[in-house]
Design brief:
Blueprint: H1 3-19, E1 26-31, E2 34-40, H2 43-46, H3 53-62, E3 73-79, H4 83-91, E4 96-101, E5 129-132, H5 136-141
Parallel strand pairs: 3-4, 4-5
Antiparallel strand pairs: 1-2, 1-3
Length: about 140
């Protein structure tokens, strides 16, 4: 798997979000080397806080016939999934998350509420593998 290749796709989606006034976040889901879903941050555009890029990618993927369990997918995202997105990721059992940039206080892994790393909620199973820092500088540059 070429993490940088897929992160570049996320960066192009994040650029769309930025151009329309949303936070510059893009996310994709990959299954067997193919992109099956894309998400563009859209909280301001849709006037709905749940329009995070990661959730949008998951919504698109789970709209496919017979796709509720995403345990055979890899998620790529320009920014660390927030606490809300982390819950949805864990619920859909995505086993690997490739992250460009950590987000600190609201992050699903780096905050005081690291749901992406939690082992206490048994029905979620094992936490996903986190690969952090892929094209980090390009992801950071979206904010300038």
């Amino acid at each position: 798997m070429d993490n940088e290749y897929f992160m570049r796709e996320c960066l192009s989606l994040a650029q769309i979000a930025k151009q329309r006034g949303d936070s510059p976040v893009g996310s994709i889901l990959v299954r067997n080397g193919e992109i099956i879903a894309r998400g563009i941050e859209g909280g301001k555009t849709h006037k709905d806080i749940t329009y995070h890029a990661e959730i949008e990618a998951i919504r698109e993927a789970t709209a496919l016939p017979d796709t509720r369990d995403l345990s055979d997918c890899i998620m790529y995202t320009t920014h660390e999934p927030c606490i809300m997105c982390a819950y949805v990721i864990r619920h859909t059992r995505i086993p690997t998350i490739v992250i460009g940039l950590t987000t600190g206080d609201i992050g699903g892994a780096s905050s005081a509420y690291p749901l992406l790393k939690d082992t206490g909620i048994k029905k979620w199973g094992n936490p996903p593998q986190l690969i952090i820092g892929v094209l980090e500088e390009a992801c950071r540059a979206l904010h300038y």
